[in-house]
Amino acid sequence: MKLWSGRFGKDTDALVNDFNASISFDQRLYREDIAGSIAHAVMLADCGVISREDAEAITRGLEEILADVEAGKIEFSADNEDIHMNIEALLTARIGDAGKRLHTARSRNDQVALDFRLYVREQIGVIRDQLLDLEETLCRQAERYQAAVMPGYTHLQRAQPISFAQHLLAYAQMLSRDITRLEDCRKRLNQCPLGSGALAGTTYPIDRWQTARALGFDAPMDNSLDGVSDRDYALEFLSGLSILMAHLSRFAEEIILWCSWEFKFIELDDAYATGSSIMPQKKNPDVAELVRGKTGRVYGDLMSLLTVMKGLPLAYNKDMQEDKEPVFDAIDTVEMAVPVFTAMLDTMTVLPENMRRAAGRGFINATDCADYLTKKGMPFRDAYTAVGRLVAVCSAQGKTLEELALEELKAVSDLFEADVYEALNLENCMALRNSWGGPAVAETTRQIAAIREFVSRQRT
Hints:
A two-stranded antiparallel ribbon has the order 1-2. A two-stranded parallel sheet has the order 3-4. It contains 20 helices and 6 strands. The longest helix has 37 residues, at 108-144. The chain is mainly α. The protein starts with 13 loop residues before the first helix and ends with a helix.
């Protein structure tokens, strides 16, 4: 018999029972459900709503159920619909009438709202720690390759000289924002819905501040309707995960390009690549490709929940049972993607000679050449035009700017002197880009230190 069956004259149809039940996926909330129930029972006893003996029996019973679940001794039933009713049914079967008093001054509406917040809060911490590991890996690799010159790109065309370290650190900055974005979400979700009841609170003399503090929340939610009916924290969380996956996907795309023979800037470790079933020479960057592909999956999770929530009147509606699977799926996807992506980056072989060779073609020191003339007194736009003419000459002759003879340079401008070759040297071009955030070693050293200091703060 279902716990809510008193008003009904017949059993639920088997198809409806299967359609209605959520235990197949919400059973992962068992820890949160038990923690919330223990806090609720203790509060009820402290407020005189139930006896101290009943609260102690409930607490012992729930702790035993938790141990049995984690030992694999309990099989949940779809007849009890969800994790909340499964645990309550188990508790009542074990301790009798005391178990029936647990749900006093509580509804499944505020119960599930509590469990879901607790779960998302916990997973934010898990994902944050994974991202911090990734940031540390990026810092280690960046530190090794601060002097490695590579072409920076715009429009996927070679543009200006940068270091491999600066390129990696750009993603470290993005990940730092991803972390703080998730932490901001955690701050906003950290209000407790327990005590909101079905929608209108309760007539019992409960202490919502007590349960909020016991469960690590900053405060109880101010409005009981809002407490049971909104999932903005879940939407914000999925939005944060979507932006995170966008960053990983962009990085994955570059890994895929860098692995190709057309670039060959890096080579992935054999443990993080796969082969072909027909072409024996192939080494495929499947990890990066899957991260890129799974990004669309996380976007879909966000769109799914946005669509569920877009037209719901207050307060709780059964549609909101659809909140969990997209969140669970996004969590599982991200928590699988980030560690394997980290390991892939940590074990890759970087090929700085190939990067330097690529940097030597494509006139990526053209801006430096224009800056040279500007520093000699020529207006920048005139310098820009002069260097454009030199690039045309080089293209016709198959040369680079630094391969032109001084006479050829002077044919375009008398301002050119022998020191221009020092200005055109790619290592010098990179080293002189020492403005805040630039690729010069001093600047990447500062950036690495800043990221490491951020990671250290986050871990304390």
